[in-house]
């Protein structure tokens, strides 16, 4: 897709001329490390964001205009979480099959192939 660099770039990412053990090792490593990299970048972002504030063009610290996160917003978030969990638990205990697929209740017959599957 990239002229002059496409095949070279693909071979470099793959680690050879085809998808092989080196490719899988690289992608598994990348898949394992990426969440930690994203978490670290998020923490650095929050650190810099909360030093001066997100909407603070002059960069001065204005603590007098702020209210603390805890206990006000902590209790609000906890109550919202508890309400959502209570609704989910009530749904799963009162009517557990409400959101299920009706085809799950058809007994399986290994001798009959469904109509939409043809050899």
From TrEMBL:
PANTHER family found in the cross-reference section: CYTOCHROME B
Subcellular location, record wording: Mitochondrion inner membrane
Organism: Crocothemis erythraea
Function: Component of the ubiquinol-cytochrome c reductase complex (complex III or cytochrome b-c1 complex) that is part of the mitochondrial respiratory chain. The b-c1 complex mediates electron transfer from ubiquinol to cytochrome c. Contributes to the generation of a proton gradient across the mitochondrial membrane that is then used for ATP synthesis.
Gene Ontology process terms (BP): mitochondrial electron transport, ubiquinol to cytochrome c
InterPro entries: Cyt_b/b6_C, Cyt_b/b6_N, Cytb/b6-like_sf, Di-haem_cyt_TM
Domain spans labelled Cytochrome b/b6 C-terminal region profile: 59-119
Protein's name in the database: Cytochrome b
Membrane topology category: Multi-pass membrane protein
Segments traversing the membrane: 27-49, 78-99
Subunit structure as annotated in this protein's UniProt entry: The main subunits of complex b-c1 are: cytochrome b, cytochrome c1 and the Rieske protein.
């Amino acid at each position: 897709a990239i002229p002059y660099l496409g095949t070279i770039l693909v071979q470099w990412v793959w680690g050879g001329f085809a998808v092989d053990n080196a490719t899988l090792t690289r992608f598994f490593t990348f898949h394992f490390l990426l969440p930690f990299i994203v978490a670290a970048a998020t923490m650095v972002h929050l650190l810099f964001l909360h030093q001066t504030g997100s909407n603070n063009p002059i960069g001065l610290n204005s603590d007098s205009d702020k209210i603390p996160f805890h206990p006000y917003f902590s209790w609000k978030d906890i109550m919202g979480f508890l309400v959502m969990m209570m609704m989910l638990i009530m749904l799963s205990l009162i009517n557990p099959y409400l959101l299920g697929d009706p085809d799950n209740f058809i007994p399986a017959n290994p001798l009959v192939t469904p109509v939409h599957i043809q050899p």
